[in-house]
Amino acid sequence: MRRQTDTAASDNSLRALFPGLYATPTSPLPFLDEVVVRSFVLLTVQGPVIVYNSPGIDATSDQLMQLGPPHRLLLNHYHEAMYGPPQLKVPTYIHEHDRSGVESSMRIAGVFTTPQHLQSDLEVIPSFSHTAGTTFFLWDNGAHRFLFPGDAIWVEDGTWKAVILAESNRQAFLATITVLQNLDFDVLVPWHAHHDAQPYDVVTPRQKHDQLEQLSARIAAGAAGPRA
After folding, report:
1. Which of 20, 68, 159, 199 is the most buried (most CB within 10 A)?
2. Which DSSP state fits 71?
3. Nearest C-alpha neighbor of 141 from the set 10, 213, 49
4. What domains are defined for the chain?
């Protein structure tokens, strides 16, 4: 669903998506044609937080610092380390189960082990689906509740799809979808998207329910790959 109120920005600038939510410029995802990744900056109650690693962090570092020094970089899973650590100094966090996949290239300040509230408006939701340590994040800006699923779930042509690899846990995916059906959120914000698509999907409760039901059915039926 496209929002007509998005703030336009140049390719090398932060893009304001919603009050308090900004997107960095995009970078290609090497193994999916015409698919790009980006990071997101959240102006939380305790200051800026970056979700997802990507080259866009350093491309917009001056603008990021104008919003205030970010106090966390939250990684959804270890594949994000393929882009290397940002030059911008920011403490990086990931789930304990994915730590070994990033610490050779990125310095880890701390790990998640259980569901928790990092602060009053920001929640950690371990999924263990796409990778052993895949972790979702839920942020409430007062008007919307944003779910950041990494690339465990993304949007292609209006349909929510999963990325199920050989290392992925199908049962954990199904369990995660059950959790999401009971979770209050209205904006899905994946790590990657088609290069000419919006980087988020705004949904009603019914749309969210239907997307998750259809996704669950495909996964239970054996769907696999980057477009499950």
Report:
1. 199
2. -
3. 49
4. 15-152+184-202 (3.60.15.10)
